[in-house]
Automatic annotation (TrEMBL):
<feature type="binding site">
    <location>
        <position position="926"/>
    </location>
    <ligand>
        <name>Zn(2+)</name>
    </ligand>
</feature>
<dbReference type="InterPro" id="IPR009080">
    <property type="entry name" value="tRNAsynth_Ia_anticodon-bd"/>
</dbReference>
<dbReference type="GO" id="GO:0005829">
    <property type="term" value="C:cytosol"/>
</dbReference>
<dbReference type="Pfam" id="PF06827">
    <property type="entry name" value="zf-FPG_IleRS"/>
</dbReference>
<keyword id="KW-0963">Cytoplasm</keyword>
<keyword id="KW-0648">Protein biosynthesis</keyword>
<comment type="function">
    <text>Catalyzes the attachment of isoleucine to tRNA(Ile). As IleRS can inadvertently accommodate and process structurally similar amino acids such as valine, to avoid such errors it has two additional distinct tRNA(Ile)-dependent editing activities. One activity is designated as 'pretransfer' editing and involves the hydrolysis of activated Val-AMP. The other activity is designated 'posttransfer' editing and involves deacylation of mischarged Val-tRNA(Ile).</text>
</comment>
<feature type="binding site">
    <location>
        <position position="906"/>
    </location>
    <ligand>
        <name>Zn(2+)</name>
    </ligand>
</feature>
<dbReference type="GO" id="GO:0008270">
    <property type="term" value="F:zinc ion binding"/>
</dbReference>
<dbReference type="InterPro" id="IPR002300">
    <property type="entry name" value="aa-tRNA-synth_Ia"/>
</dbReference>
<dbReference type="GO" id="GO:0006428">
    <property type="term" value="P:isoleucyl-tRNA aminoacylation"/>
</dbReference>
<dbReference type="InterPro" id="IPR023585">
    <property type="entry name" value="Ile-tRNA-ligase_type1"/>
</dbReference>
<comment type="subunit">
    <text>Monomer.</text>
</comment>
<dbReference type="GO" id="GO:0004822">
    <property type="term" value="F:isoleucine-tRNA ligase activity"/>
</dbReference>
<dbReference type="InterPro" id="IPR033708">
    <property type="entry name" value="Anticodon_Ile_BEm"/>
</dbReference>
<feature type="binding site">
    <location>
        <position position="929"/>
    </location>
    <ligand>
        <name>Zn(2+)</name>
    </ligand>
</feature>
<feature type="domain" description="Zinc finger FPG/IleRS-type">
    <location>
        <begin position="903"/>
        <end position="931"/>
    </location>
</feature>
Length: 944
């Protein structure tokens, strides 16, 4: 008996150099180095000459410490947006940058001073600034390498920094524009002040935490009033900031509220209230006051409207102890009856509304608190006492004077510095402001600019709009040393700032050559010019708010490089509605009359797997450096783009494992395509008109994916795009199309139309998938491209393929949607047969399909066998059957019948067919396989 021939060498099994394992942590650094040496970024710019530019202006991260996972999210999302725009046909020039000035870096340098016992105030300012500059430069270099390790493409050699000399000059020039147009002024206003850092803070530098405050209810004796009945009574106020009592200058009430003149009849034990005394309180809050003050019984003697009390004058509760000024009563619309007594004590130096009310009525704005949070030397009773520790002393003084009615505690949300974590105070200090509502109409123009800007998601419009509508004048001065000074001179005789364009020009020129240090190193006459006496002017030494600096970045990044202005896109976290988006909008509107961006895209924050904020104390921090060391940067990039970045994102060990599994499926898709394209030549190409329906359906799906991707390119809304691409690879391709076409690709003659059409589609799939994945899986896509075309031409120099409109076929898509529904019914029956134990491979099966009249016409029996991956299929038409009957049928109820296929197993394709054994010279092959072997065209497979 002759020996059975082994036909395995005649089968076209996949062959590729693209390995199953990504081994990304080892491969990625090598690719980065090759890209640097090859100058891929420079090649891309050269190839993009003449294209429309796309400018995503980079919001500068702070040059302080290693990158955290929030940085990774932000830069990866920016990189994907830039790369997709580039591959869609634009010139995506991305200039990364850094914010280098400000308090956090000062704080770090001062920490080093404290450790070594040095006094910061004894260090010359230029030396201190040099140390800050060196610190920022170090961390810029570290972060630059880390961003590039994430695969972020950009002009890293032409990056910007706020501490670059041209940047500092541009910032000074932008300040000068506000000076010259009159919007910049110096005024005494209450600002959020940090006694620890000894400087004003911007809203974006503030966070809110629970804080326990001492509350006091205080009597203000009425000394005169248009309502004679209340003279000799006491108006009662309630406050959570007893330290502001030395700054009290007035009382406010609601004009429409009902107030009661109350006589106290009896009190509880320990109460500070006195039987027989008369007090005034809002009637709505009388029950709460009685409980808090221990008032047992009382009589309401008379009711008044708040408006009736206007013109009443009280004595300060510490009168006779250095507080002998009158305390007038005014009406104010912002007074509420939510808590307290319905009367608000007004300290104009310690609150925005208090300040406005005081200025309206010409009140004194006392400066009671110094830079460090201690009461100034001229404050009676409390000089030198820190406001954080003042509650007991003030309560004791009020008790001794007879003014304290009640004392308590309240836990409430309170502003804190996000750096020192210390509670803040409102403090009136001389500061430099940009006017929001003057002739420049900055607020109105900003609101109009918001209406004209595209926001993704759109709710960002309302968020920033409400902030702009309600914000006070912009305080831009800080009392620190590391930053760009506010280069202004104030005339001593008039107290007015010098608004001279020639002085501004000299400042800008000096800063451009020497940096902002020139302000400290040069005599004032250098800037004032020869015609002015320096002694007649005060040189301002405050620095500008770092948010003004970064908000000016459009001027020294876009304008200075000749790039299109405004930028196409600003992209940051949603907290930047009150940060960089906010300051950039105001700065640009104030100097140019419009927003510096056409669109604003925001993303959420990163939480752990349980939805908690990350913290070292909880041990739940995911560091990007650890992720790329364990999994590779592509896994981190994939996590960003399969997440819904509009909301907060979660990350942790289990989520990263899930991303690695998603990545494995995508990689295996690319690997199978590459392996099945082994030996591909353009001569195999089949026009789509000659392709089988199944191939034309795949082309339609490519058209749909391309439309989804191009829509995201235009709208910046990438939500769901890459999950859809993953589903396409896993469900449409691997689990369906590849599964069906493996037989043709492995076993058909290489000149067969079916095999050539399938490989033509695989050629399209490879080009589409590698380019669509390249913006996200930057390293893997490069590897998959090089595995086919060699490493000479990078995937990152390619554009997205142009998908012909003719590939769209909605009717065909509907037809194959129904075919797949029916196929799932067959698959369920085959799985049931496997579980029963009598079927191992679907090719051992024959299937009987009773179908409705419409469904029976979808495919021939031979095509059903091919699609169901069985060896035989029969179709019977059931005139009573409806298409819906098969859609959700369970295996038990399904009319689909599975049986053993008749015939023998082909040794080459493994189908079970009656014709096996009937082929001359090939007794173990089916007719198709015998023809393929006899053709001699499978010799290549044999050679391999």
């Amino acid at each position: 008996m002759s020996e059975t021939r082994d036909y395995r060498d005649t089968v076209f099994l996949p062959a590729t150099s693209f390995p199953m394992r990504g081994d990304l942590p080892k491969k990625e650094p090598g690719m980065l180095e090759r890209w640097r040496k090859a100058g891929i970024w420079q090649q891309l710019r050269a190839r993009s000459q003449g294209r429309d530019k796309f400018i995503l202006h980079d919001g500068p991260p702070y040059a302080n410490g290693h990158l955290h996972i929030g940085h990774a999210l932000n830069k990866i999302l920016k990189d994907v947006v830039n790369r997709t725009r580039q591959m869609a046909g634009y010139d995506g020039l991305y200039v990364p940058g850094w914010d280098c000035h400000g308090l956090p870096i000062e704080w770090k340098i001062e920490e080093e001073y404290r450790k070594s016992g040095r006094d910061k105030d004894a260090v010359p300012v230029l030396q201190f600034r040099a140390e800050c500059r060196a610190y920022a430069a170090h961390w810029m270099a570290v972060q630059s390498e880390e961003f590039q390790r994430l695969g972020v493409f950009g002009a890293w050699e032409d990056r910007y920094a706020t501490m670059d000399f041209p940047s500092e000059a541009a910032i000074a020039g932008e300040i000068g524009k506000f000076l010259l147009n009159g919007a910049l002024y110096r005024g005494l206003r209450p600002v959020m002040w940090s006694p620890v850092e000894k400087t004003a803070l911007a809203e974006a530098e503030i966070e809110y935490h629970d804080h326990t405050s001492t509350t006091v209810t205080v009597r203000f004796p009425v000394v005169r009033s248009p309502v004679s009945d209340i003279v000799g009574a006491a108006i009662v106020i309630w406050t959570t900031t007893p330290w502001t009592m030395p700054g009290n200058r007035a009382i406010a009430c609601g004009p429409e509220f009902d107030y009661a003149l109350v006589r106290i009849d009896s009190v509880a034990e320990g109460s500070r209230a006195r039987p027989g005394e008369r007090i005034l309180v809002a009637i709505a809050l009388l029950p709460q006051l009685c409980e808090a003050a221990g008032i047992a019984t009382h009589h309401v003697l008379r009711l008044f409207k708040g408006a009736d009390l206007y013109g009443t004058v009280c004595a300060h509760p510490l009168r006779g102890r250095g507080y002998d000024h009158d305390v007038p009563v005014f009406t104010a619309a912002y007074v509420t009856t939510d808590a307290g007594t319905g009367f608000v004590h007004i300290a104009p130096g310690h609150g925005e509304e208090d300040f406005d009310l005081g200025r309206k009525h010409g009140l004194e704005i006392p400066e009671t608190v110094g830079d460090d949070g201690s009461f100034n030397a001229w404050v009676p009773l409390f000089a030198g006492l820190h406001v954080y520790k003042a509650a007991d002393a003030i309560c004791a003084a009020l008790q001794e004077a007879g003014g304290l009615l009640a004392r308590g505690k309240l836990v409430h949300s309170y502003p804190h510095s996000w750096r020192s974590k210390a509670p803040l105070i409102f403090r009136a200090t001389p500061q430099w402001f940009i006017r929001m509502d003057g002739p420049e109409q900055i607020r109105a123009r900003a609101l109009q600019a918001i209406a004209e800007t595209d926001f993704v998601p759109d709710q960002g419009r309302n968020r920033i709009g409400s902030m702009i509508a309600a914000r006070p004048d912009w305080c831009i001065s800080r009392q620190r040393a590391w930053g760009v000074p506010i280069p202004v001179f104030v005339e001593r005789a008039s107290g007015q700032p010098l608004r001279d364009p020639e002085v501004v020009a000299r400042v800008v020129a000096a800063f451009r050559e020497e940096g902002a240090d020139a302000w400290y190193a040069s005599p004032p006459g250098r800037f004032l010019g020869p015609d002015r006496d320096p002694a007649a002017y005060e040189q301002v030494m405050d620095i500008v708010d770092v948010w003004f600096e970064s908000g000016s970045s459009h001027a020294f990044v876009l304008d200075a490089r000749g790039l299109p202005w405004p930028a196409d896109l600003y992209l940051e976290g949603s907290d930047q509605h009150r940060g960089w988006f906010h300051s950039s909008l105001l700065e640009s509107v104030g100097t140019r009359g419009r927003a510096p961006f056409e669109a604003v895209l925001t993303h959420g924050f990163v939480l752990d797997e349980q939805g908690r904020k990350m913290s070292k104390s909880l041990g739940n921090v995911t560091a990007p450096q650890e992720v790329w060391d364990q999994y590779g940067a592509d896994i981190l990039r994939l996590w960003v783009m399969v997440s819904d970045t509009r909301d907060d994102l979660r990350i942790g060990p289990e989520i990263l494992k899930q991303q690695a599994e998603l990545y494995r499926r995508l990689r295996n898709t690319l690997r199978w395509i590459l392996g099945s394209l082994d030996g591909w030549t353009p001569g195999e190409h089949v026009p789509e008109a000659e392709m089988p329906e199944l191939e034309r359906w795949v082309l339609h799906r490519l058209w749909e994916m391309d439309a989804q991707i191009r829509s995201a390119v235009d709208t910046y809304d990438w939500t769901g795009v890459y999950p859809a691409l993953h589903a396409f690879c896993a469900t449409d391709l691997s689990a369906f199309y590849f599964d069906i076409r493996k037989d043709a690709i492995y076993c058909d003659r290489p000149d067969s139309l079916r095999r050539r059409a399938a490989r033509t589609v695989l050629d399209h799939l490879h080009r589409c998938l590698t380019t669509w994945l390249a913006p996200v899986l930057v390293f893997t896509a490069e590897e998959a491209w090089a595995a086919r075309f060699g490493g000479e031409c990078s995937i990152h120099l390619q554009d997205f393929p142009d998908i012909p409109q003719r590939w769209r076929d909605d009717a065909l898509a509907e037809r194959w949607k129904r075919i797949r529904e029916l196929r799932r019914g067959v698959t369920l029956q085959l799985e049931a047969a496997r579980q029963a134990g009598w079927l191992k491979s679907s090719l051992q099966a024959a299937v009987l399909l009773p179908l409705s009249a419409d469904d029976a016409s979808l495919l021939t029996p031979e095509e059903w066998a091919e699609v169901a991956i069985v060896s035989k299929a029969d179709v019977t038409e059931d005139p009573d059957r409806q298409p819906a009957d098969d859609a959700q049928a369970s295996p038990e109820r399904s009319p689909i019948a599975i049986s053993a296929a008749p015939g023998d197993k082909c040794a080459r394709c493994w189908k079970v067919l009656p014709e096996v054994g009937q082929q001359p010279g090939h007794p173990t092959l089916c007719r198709r396989c015998a023809d393929a072997v006899d053709s001699g065209l499978v010799c290549r497979a044999a050679a391999e």
